[in-house]
């Protein structure tokens, strides 16, 4: 069964450094999402992306964050000048069609630890 | 506005049943249910799209009461593999982003 893959599985970075989290969505999916989950808390929406544009973003997704689809398969989340509070599990998800009536398939996540 | 889940946690013996509720103060277009095991990604269970719709997956089923703006997830004859945190996510219509509740931690003991 096709799946969303994320790399790396764990990223440790010094505060103030930039990180790039990578995702390969399911190949025929057109809509991509990033979510964040701070340890022990709920999953929080960050951003959705379609046709090389951001469709929707949350309050969390400020100027520190950016997303990109650099080629036909990868979808990246960049965090500039990381802060301690950015430590969390970051999940990428994809769906074939947009809309809240479509299932989203999640990757295994990247655990980001900011020191 | 995030949906509210109840209970926050439940402990079951294998074979027992459980109900997890998800309610919203806003009109619901859809309700998504996911299960997340510790250290793993959320796994999609089912979507409910319209009022009164019920869906089932093995011994896990769910209902959606659009008027009451709530959904319930039913786990019958629970198995050890059902243990995990169950999240409901509500959709805002045409936008794909999901707003998740805080989750219900389900522990099934032998």
* Structural shape of chain B: globular
Based on helices, strands and strand pairing, what is the structural class of chain A? mainly beta
Radius of gyration of chain B: 13 Å
Low-confidence parts of chain B: none
The overall average pLDDT of chain B, rounded, is 87
Relative helix content of chain A: under 10%
Give an account of the 3D structure.
The complex is a heterodimer of chains A (115) and B (110). Chain A is mainly β. Chain A has strands at residues 5-7, 10-13, 19-24, 31-37, 43-50, 53-57, 65-68, 75-79, 88-95, 105-106, 110-114. In chain A, strands 2, 4, 5, 6, 9, 10 and 11 form a seven-stranded mixed β-sheet that branches. Chain A has a four-stranded antiparallel β-sheet with strand order 1-3-8-7, with no helix packed on it. In chain A, strand 5 and strand 6 form a beta hairpin. The radius of gyration of chain A is 13 Å and the shape is globular. The mean pLDDT of chain A is 92. Chain B is mainly beta and 110 residues long. Chain B is 0% helix and 55% strand. Chain B has strands at residues 4-6, 9-13, 18-23, 30-36, 43-48, 54-57, 60-65, 70-75, 84-91, 98-100, 104-109. In chain B, strands 2, 4, 5, 9, 10 and 11 form a six-stranded mixed β-sheet that branches. Chain B has a five-stranded antiparallel β-sheet with strand order 1-3-8-7-6, with no helix packed on it. In chain B, strand 4 (30-36) and strand 5 (43-48) form a beta hairpin. The radius of gyration of chain B is 13 Å and the shape is globular. The chains are: A mainly beta (115), B mainly beta (110). The A-B interface holds A 31, 33, 41-45, 48, 55-56, 58, 91, 95, 98-109 and B 2, 29-30, 32, 34, 36, 40-44, 47, 49, 87, 89-103.
């Amino acid at each position: 069964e096709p799946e969303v893959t994320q790399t790396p599985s764990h990223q440790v970075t010094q505060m103030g450094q930039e990180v790039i989290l990578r995702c390969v969505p399911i190949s025929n999916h057109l809509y991509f999402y990033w979510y964040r989950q701070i340890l022990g808390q709920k999953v929080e929406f960050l951003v959705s992306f379609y046709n090389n544009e951001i469709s929707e973003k949350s309050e969390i997704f400020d100027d520190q964050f950016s997303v990109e689809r650099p080629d036909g398969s990868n979808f990246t989340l960049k965090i500039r000048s990381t802060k301690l509070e950015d430590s969390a599990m970051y999940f990428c998800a994809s769906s074939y069609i947009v809309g809240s009536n479509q299932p989203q398939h999640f990757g295994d996540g990247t655990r980001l630890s900011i020191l | 506005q995030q949906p509210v889940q109840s209970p926050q946690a439940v402990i079951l013996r294998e074979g027992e049943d459980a109900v997890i509720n998800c309610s919203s103060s806003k009109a619901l277009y859809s309700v998504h249910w996911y299960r997340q095991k510790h250290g793993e990604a959320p796994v999609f269970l089912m979507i409910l799209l319209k009022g009164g719709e019920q869906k089932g997956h093995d011994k896990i089923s769910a209902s959606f009461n659009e008027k009451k703006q709530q959904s319930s997830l039913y786990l019958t004859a629970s198995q050890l593999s059902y243990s995990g945190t169950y999240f409901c996510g509500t959709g805002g219509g045409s936008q794909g982003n999901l707003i998740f509740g805080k989750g219900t931690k389900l522990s099934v003991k032998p």
